[in-house]
Specification:
The protein is of the alpha/beta class. Helix content is 54%, strand content 12%. The chain is built from 19 helices and eight strands. It has an eight-stranded mixed beta sheet with strand order 1-2-4-3-5-6-7-8, with helices on both faces. Helix 3 links the parallel strand 5 and strand 6. Helix 13 packs across helix 14. The termini are far apart.
């Protein structure tokens, strides 16, 4: 049995498969343990190796310190990956496991090569729904809600045709520790990854069952639309756990996605993709339409060299690179480029406060005149995109 001791808690995990194969890391849904992936793995065997684990408060993992924020769960998975010296992986998350996967991809982008999000979203459900569930489970136990959960987990045909199997999954849910279940409910209730997920750069596949009653298709679609370049797929005759109901269909989607994204982009295509995600389609389209035979070699050089070689690297987020670029352009007095990158913060996620602090820092290390000019340029750039110096959108 494989375990990790982490801050007084023990995480149960299982690492299977030969080390030369690509690794898929699986993160489970609320009320399940690592066995939820068992039906899927035979379809991926001999192509990948697998790391599965039980979240704190679930399965065989302990919950001495209740993990009631999504950051707790994100930190647990990062600690597990670091302890196993895993430097890069394919990360697949289901429901709350998908929230965890998005968080790891945002916080440690170098760890996640490809992202697979099953029946999840950047924000799941209103707080009132989670508060009601927490109160019910605390007072009456998980068994009180188990039948209703089965209706969300599984499509109607599966519940009718696989009654005995549904009983087993219902038992798994009911035997989850109440304190672990409710703490994770609180983590889901308070999690809103809209901002960080909108800045993800990893190739992403979003999948949902057409009868999912917990994270309906339109909610999952909204997450796919939020993440740049994400692919969205619906599995027919499946509820919230397609890995149980339709493992063959899920495996085919995963295999097709990984096969496509494994075909490397040219440096130009990779650079153009990142360039558009930072500067916006309108800006890049204008630049491309104005391109001539005279400046075409330079435009190619910038797209391949800056965007395809540097901005495409995983070790800094777009937000980090955005602030570094603003500082350097301001220090060198490149005002036109500086204004462009201040406007681009609407795509990179760097906030007005962070830009202000960057330019204040600039005054210490590059001189007050450079900082003074840069602040004036930034104020004008923000005004052009409808943001006042107080950070409020102009009407």
């Amino acid at each position: 049995m494989q375990t990790l001791s982490n801050n007084g808690d023990v995480l149960h995990y299982q690492l299977d498969g030969p080390s030369h194969l690509p690794l898929i890391v699986f993160s489970n849904s609320l009320g399940t343990d690592m066995r939820v992936w068992d039906p899927l793995l035979p379809y991926l065997k001999d192509q990948y190796r697998f790391l599965r684990y039980d979240k704190r408060g679930h399965g065989l993992s302990s919950c001495n310190n209740l993990p009631d924020t999504i950051d707790d769960h994100i930190s647990d998975l990062i600690a597990l990956l670091d302890s196993l010296h895993i430097s890069q992986t394919i990360l697949c998350g289901l429901s709350v496991g998908g929230l965890i996967a998005q968080g790891v991809a945002a916080k440690r982008p170098e760890l996640v090569k490809h992202l697979i999000l099953c029946d999840t979203a950047h924000k799941i459900g209103p707080a009132e729904t989670w508060d009601a569930r927490i109160e019910t489970v605390t007072q009456h136990g998980i068994g009180h809600i188990a039948d209703a959960v089965m209706e969300r987990w599984f499509a109607s045909n599966f519940r009718t045709e696989q009654e005995a199997e549904v009983v087993l999954w219902k038992n798994m849910l009911a035997r989850t520790p109440v304190e672990g279940y409710t703490a994770t409910c609180k983590a889901i209730r308070n999690a809103d990854l809209t901002q960080s997920s909108s800045q993800l750069t990893q190739p992403t596949l979003c999948i949902v069952g057409d009868e999912d009653g917990a994270t309906p298709p339109e909610l999952v679609r909204s997450t796919a639309e939020l993440i740049p370049g994400a692919q969205f797929e619906i599995i027919k005759n499946a509820g919230h756990l397609p890995c149980v109901e339709q493992p063959d269909a899920l495996a085919k989607l995963i295999q097709g996605f990984l096969r496509n994204v494994s075909e490397p982009l040219t440096r130009f295509d990779a650079g153009m993709k990142v360039r558009r995600s930072v500067l916006g389609d309108a800006h890049v389209d204008r630049a491309e339409s104005n391109k001539t035979t005279f400046d075409e070699p330079f435009q190619t050089f910038i797209t391949e060299g800056a965007w395809g070689s540097v901005w495409s690297r995983p070790f800094l987020s777009k937000r980090d690179r955005s602030l570094i670029t603003i500082a350097l352009l301001a220090a060198l007095g490149h005002d036109e480029e500086l204004a462009m990158h201040v406007r681009a913060t609407q795509n990179t996620g760097a906030t007005l406060d962070e830009v202000r602090e960057t330019l204040l820092h600039l005054g210490v290390y590059a001189g007050v005149p450079a900082s003074n000019i840069a602040i004036r340029v930034a104020k004008q750039a923000y005004a052009e995109i409808g943001i006042s110096i107080d950070g409020d959108k102009n009407s």
